[in-house]
Design goal:
CATH architecture of the largest domain in chain A: 3-Layer(aba) Sandwich
Radius of gyration of chain A: 23 Å
CATH topology of the largest domain in chain A: Aminopeptidase
CATH class of the largest domain in chain A: Alpha Beta
Number of strands of chain A: 18
Shape of chain A: globular
Structural class of chain A: alpha+beta
Oligomer: homodimer
Chain lengths: 462, 462
């Protein structure tokens, strides 16, 4: 692949402008108001795969948003790589905190990205990382460097639970058959500290509703005599953690995979500065489960966070009201062996038990996913490791991520193949936040590294 | 006043249609978007006072919304009644819970209002009750029945703390001089159980802001390792009450006026059905400070309620975010001898002390007011009592209200006169709630009762 670097160099402006066009499309899957844009984005991905060299591309209908499928089969006896990614993005709000409009990409230099970074919703998660694979395919097909078969499965509901994906997989096992699944939807430690994600946390996402009186009440006439749904909700949520920040849901920790001292010592070797961690997000101190480090709290330990809460008068000025209802969105991150469906039930039972007689509580399980761990002795991991070594000049560190890609465990269960998570983003890329961005260096480095994965994976399979 | 009833009967359709016109004006003082309507409403009140027989009317500029002043001085040696009311209204939201648009008044019969009730924001609080005084004046002037002097002071900031009113009073002590202040901005027990409010709770209204990280974070990557402002806010709010629902702010109860057993026994005589109280607002059980009855909890005891809370993602679907900020609006109802400024400071100190190192807390005192009690042996109370007796055929019951009219204590302090609270609304009128309404019977009964107050008050002063 001696011409890989020069090919990227010659075409990098086009690679960037193509991605920028994709980022202009507000494919927010969580908000029905954007459904038209989500569908247009699927079409755009189809066209891109076609141009990149797939010899069969299809926008597949599902019960929800379509899944874009593409393939290039050069020899059925050779291994097949299935690339997964998503073309939908998180909602941009709070929009007022963006320095530039979320769907009008701009390139700006930052301390960590001296070559510039593209600022836009989805720049890193996942359009930028997904599109690296499209451009890597383009290189391999244009230069006769594709050593094996490749399939693409790019979905549009990852940010809302990938509900249609399961349906799609169950109905297309044959079409999706593969030897390894490749995903770039995670991050690495730093541009000079490449890492491969070997573990993902599971997720249980629920929405809760607490109802008190049948209408909003005047807090003067009823205050003190009636259960206020907001106060009650606050009290119930406060009751979910104990003083050591352990989650009080009975049975929550029963199946948690406790790491050995050796494993935790190994983890602790990853370069980490608590000071720069705190200053990067502007906090005076970290906060979490007693007895675990910050890295452990955000990777090998389960968590419970309120992602949204609302109730009563939230407009300007003052309104003295006891609202009829209060709501919260709550998510739990799970670790290996925790079953999200079981956890959702345990949560519901416990949460309801916290309610006093004066209110009614409804818990709606939203979606979820199972935790996942990749063995580092698998062929896929070995191939990825060698690819990073080739392009970064050093071995990548295996790393557990705190995030969740629920469908990875689904892939293993239904397609019987392992997933390799080659992420090129940085924690500081602000995915899911205002001013999300993706380094141009990272984008091009990904395009450079991916073809080597194909090369080594094919060789290791011979 | 033998022609009073017939005058009301002859003119009642006009009395109702005039009020309906006033109710069509969305004079929401809390929301700047309505400022134009608030100003128009002030003008409409000026015109109404003029037509009703005032010989001097003025829309007085203030640092905030104007105050409408009107007067009819027939003889400086006679007593002067100062009527206070407000032309501003609470925000209508949640608008979706209204059966008819809040500013398109409709008349509907209800179980408690067989003669019909006007449904609109402000119908009872306070346009309907304020306008009774305008129409009572019309009767007295048209029929040479005004026995004393009268002044009107109708403000536009009652629902947001009456900030300009204090400024206005301090600058117009002479103009506002009076012998008694008359207000209809409270309720009575039932149409067949007239009552006069002799006590009001004070108020301290604050807004709190909890800031964690400097930006919204991905709950997968940071969850468990960083203080989540929503979880922290919930925990802090939960920490404001103990297990007996007593408020934990140190010093909060120090100045609370504890009633004697006799006083509580006297209070308990007021007709009250816990079952109908619960069914009226659709709750299975009441909830409040241990050791006190529902009536005591909502009148003679101080309270703390969250009136609004918001933070994180509150749109449709799911967003896995740890927000940078979470907010709440919190109000405390105070009882005699509690000083709202002191309570606000005690709250702020305690609330800030509940915050862990991982977050920053800001407490903004919003507004407040002092509690108030009217002595039932005052001339004003006696005159009001006789007036009710005349038109309702029975003596009214003196009653402590849980609500707050902060300016009542201000009046006593600055104008040196007592306030009489002749309220004709019912608790079920849903003030501050969707579907606020005011009974037509109550509206007309108020217009009938008020002239007798002037009569008896003048006689008692001779």
């Amino acid at each position: 692949m001696e011409n890989l670097k020069s090919y990227i160099n010659t075409n990098k402006d086009r690679f960037i402008s193509e991605l920028i066009e994709l980022l202009k499309m507000p494919s927010v899957s969580a908000d029905p108001a954007y459904s038209h844009d989500v569908l247009n984005t699927a079409e755009a991905v189809k066209v891109a795969l076609d141009k990149a060299g797939c010899d069969y591309v299809e926008v597949c209908e599902t019960p929800g948003y379509p899944i874009v499928y593409g393939e290039k089969i050069i020899d059925k006896t050779l291994p097949t790589v299935l690339v997964y990614g998503h073309y939908d993005v998180q909602p941009p709000d709070p929009v007022e905190l963006w320095d530039s409009p979320p769907f009008e990409p701009v390139i700006k230099k930052t301390e960590l990205h001296p070559d510039g970074a593209i600022f836009a919703r989805g720049a890193c998660d996942d359009k930028g990382q997904m599109y690296m694979h499209v451009k890597a395919l383009e290189y391999m097909t244009q230069n006769q460097q594709l050593p094996c078969n490749v399939k693409f499965m790019i979905e549009g509901e990852e940010e809302v639970g990938s509900e249609s994906l399961e349906w799609f997989i169950l109905n297309n096992r044959e079409k999706l058959s593969n030897d390894v699944i490749l995903i770039s939807d995670t991050g690495m430690i730093a541009n000079d500290v490449p890492s491969i994600t070997t573990g993902l946390r599971g997720l249980s996402y629920v929405e809760v509703e607490v109802t008190g009186p049948n209408r909003d009440l005047h807090s003067g006439l009823y205050g003190g005599a009636v259960a206020n749904p907001i106060n009650i909700l606050n009290k119930m949520i406060a009751g979910l953690h104990d003083e050591n920040m352990r989650i009080k849901v009975p049975g929550f920790y029963d199946k948690v995979d406790e790491l050995s001292v050796d494993e935790r010592t190994e983890m602790a070797k990853a370069p980490f500065s608590l000071e720069s961690y705190k200053s990067a997000i502007g906090i005076e101190d970290v906060y979490g489960e007693h007895g675990y480090t910050t890295n452990e709290r955000s990777s090998i330990r389960p968590t419970l966070d309120v992602n949204g809460i609302w109730g009563g008068y939230i407009g300007e000025g003052a309104k003295t009201v006891i609202p009829s209802k209060a709501y919260a969105k709550i998510s739990m991150r799970l670790v290996p062996h925790q079953d999200w469906k079981e956890i959702s039930e345990l949560f519901q039972a416990y949460f309801e038990s916290l309610a006093p007689k004066g209110v009614k509580v409804v818990v709606k399980p939203h979606h979820g996913g199972y935790p996942y761990v990749t063995p580092i002795d698998s062929l896929g991991y070995q191939a990825a490791s060698k690819a990073y070594q080739t392009t970064f000049g050093k071995l990548p560190i295996p790393q557990r991520s705190g995030g969740s890609i629920p469908i990875v465990s689904l892939f293993e269960q239904e397609l019987k193949s392992k997933t390799i998570l080659m992420g090129f983003g940085l924690n500081s890329d602000a995915i899911h936040s205002p001013n999300e961005h993706y380094g141009i260096w990272n984008y091009l480095k990904g395009i450079e590294t991916i073809p080597y994965f194909y090369k080594y994976f094919t060789e290791l399979n011979q």
